[in-house]
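Thread: "does anyone have the structure for this chain?"

Original post by V.I.:
We have the sequence but no experimental structure in hand. Need at least a predicted one for the grant figures.
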Amino acid sequence: MEFNLAQLHEAIAEAIPDRECIIFRDRRLSWADVTERTRRLANHLIAAGLEVRAERAELQGWESGQPHVALYMHNCNEYLEGMLGAYKARSVPFNVNYRYVEEELVYLLNDAGAEAIVYHSEFAPTLAKILPQLPKLRTLVQVEDGSGEALLPGAVEYEAALAAASPERPKLEWSPDDLYILYTGGTTGMPKGVLWRQNDIFIAALGGRARDGSAVKSVDEILERARTPLAKSLPAPPFMHGAAHWAAFTNFHGGNAIVIQEHTSHLDGDDVWSTVVREEVTAMLIVGDAFGRPLLDQLDKKTYDLSKFGVLITGGAALSASLKKEFLERIPHLVIVDAIGSSESGGQGQNISTKDTGATTGSFQPGPDTCVLSEDLTHVLEPGSEEIGWFAKAGHVPLGYLGDREKTERTFPTTNGVRYSVPGDRSRHLESGIIEVYGRDSQTINSGGEKIFAEEVEHALKQQAPVWDAVVVGRPSERWGQEVVALVRLRDGADATREQLIEECSKHIARYKLPKDILFRDEIVRSPSGKADYRWAKEQLG
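Reply from O.Q.:
Generated one for you, tokens below.
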């Protein structure tokens, strides 16, 4: 059996209508509430003229025949409703980075061919300036956020749109071929829309596998799981980041409730931990050290009852081993799940740390269909191979990149009759079966004929007590071709010299990998999701 995300939400809601589904500030929405609200949004989009132009069988992997709906908001119940409502209208929601300036927004919205935008009021002034440059736009839905911004001309307020629409299930035939689109972060280049069949993204990243790793086989199997006792999950990063809404939908498909912290425009450690305590959150998602460090620092400032909190999941960026150890010291019963994957692959593996097992970073137990392909992409490398190859995934993988045939064929090659996703991470398959992942090839530094992986050097820096954050890039060098340069933010009140940091690094990595220079900065620029902005980092080199 294959699955559609709208179909799954409707089936689970019918089974547990009165259970809490989304909790945000003073709103406690049941599954029945969310079902009605998302049906109303779907019917509003349909009435606005959004309709399917071509079915999947008529299209190439880089093409879409469905209307696209931009979600331009901070975290809120309307963001998740926007995704579900669009799916129920057979439209395709996609993520918009709310930090984008006008030029970037015009590129993204036109690249996606946005026909509808659901947005927070605070972004109305920016949208107003670019609306004449969005020729495919049909409808604007403005979500009140307390900013006081007026409704844009021609826009409808979100709650008014819902109130005026039918609460009946849309008269459409949902298909497992309906699209899911996730735009990449654009931290190393222009954002690209990754196209997935909904069935494939469900299996690959949204809770579509059983505990033994096999794909679920029926709706009844999902409903049986959903009827288990309620758990609550808090995805702390922005929903515009794949890892955050993947966590939300994975929990939806387990019949669980999604909890959203009070302050969503920035990370407030006290707000996050207070929400965990108040709502008895059992699991939380973060994105690497950018979230882990401030949350740990907050635990030094205030005591919280975290006896009900048991699972910390990190995805999208590395959580260094030193920070994992600090979490386990403060919360001894905690289980840390370091999940690895990408927009182009879904989940690929995990690293589980507990007080008893200890903590490592960069090595993962591979998930189903995860492997390492050879440098020339001609064969799969067996465990124990000395060759560093490409971290890859077969099976349930994307269709391609929206509007980009060349990049689609390059990233999703066919080898010996099997289609793979090869997003660009370098890795090695150890004899134990564990896969070591070294990071994106685009961030590999070639220095003196040696390949140096930026993330490995970053880990060596970030485990040092004075270092708050670090990003490593390559700088042109007449002698070496490229040389390693680190940008470092020290902890408040800490003091360290370049020489001290480099000397400490030499205890963890080979000398040829050591930074040739360290540039101290008051801030390391990252995306709201916590990923390093390597374009910014390279600009710092002058």
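V.I.: this helps a lot. The mean pLDDT is 94.
O.Q.: and The chain is about 30% helix and 25% strand.
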